[in-house]
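Audit log entry. Action: structure prediction of a protein-small molecule complex. Ligand: 2-oxoglutaric acid. The ligand was supplied as SMILES and no pocket hint was given, so placement is left entirely to the predictor. Protonation state taken as written. Sequence taken verbatim from the request; no trimming, no tag removal. Recorded inputs:
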Amino acid sequence: MDLFNQEPKERVFKKMQLLDGEVWYMDNFMPLDKAKSYFKILKNSIEWRQEEIKMYGKTYPIPRKTAWYGYEGFNYKYSGILCNPKPWTKELLGIKRVIESFLPESDFNSVLLNLYRNGNDKVSWHADDEKGLGINPLIASVSLGATRRFDLKHKTEPNEKLQLELVPGSLVIMKGALQHNWLHQIPIQKKINDPRINLTFRTIVS
Ligand SMILES: O=C(O)CCC(=O)C(=O)O
């Protein structure tokens, strides 16, 4: 049974040609009406947190809200922030299962959610290369709400770059050696007033 009433064969992945890593993009993972209703449900039902990071002895709020959901025991630490998972909600589990149904190598045990309140919220250049994600992690990233730009750049080859417009209902798969060789960001886009939710399904291995 397909949660989104869409035959999996109608969903087409585009493979981005990258040196030293893999990115796949699907613009129609969810139909727009489903993306809209999931956005509304998640915005209102997720326990969003305002995390803080310490830099040079000072504490700053991170420029977005976040949440960590998953199976018990799969904790995640990034930028000094330790996340204990809240139990899966019906919606998060439903989305996870649909992704897994056409991505047989995936077996996600957790999801990091980001809420960008408007175009002033962002995530700076980074790689998802924390030890807990293991070598060559497979990460599935779903976008809901406002379209935002997703930038990728190679760590050592300055001409190797990619920009994607992440439309609502889209899915990005990052895999292979991408997290070792590339960085990614959601930049500030001051003209965007609407919020966006991003879900990155992950597999914590230790
Ligand atoms: O919002 C996005 O699309 C990317 C989020 C991200 O890079 C992360 O959570 O590590």
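Audit: result stored. Residues 112, 114, 123, 128, 141, 150, 166, 184, 186, 198, 200 surround 2-oxoglutaric acid (CB under 6 Å). Residues 24-202 form a domain with the Jelly Rolls fold (CATH 2.60.120.590).
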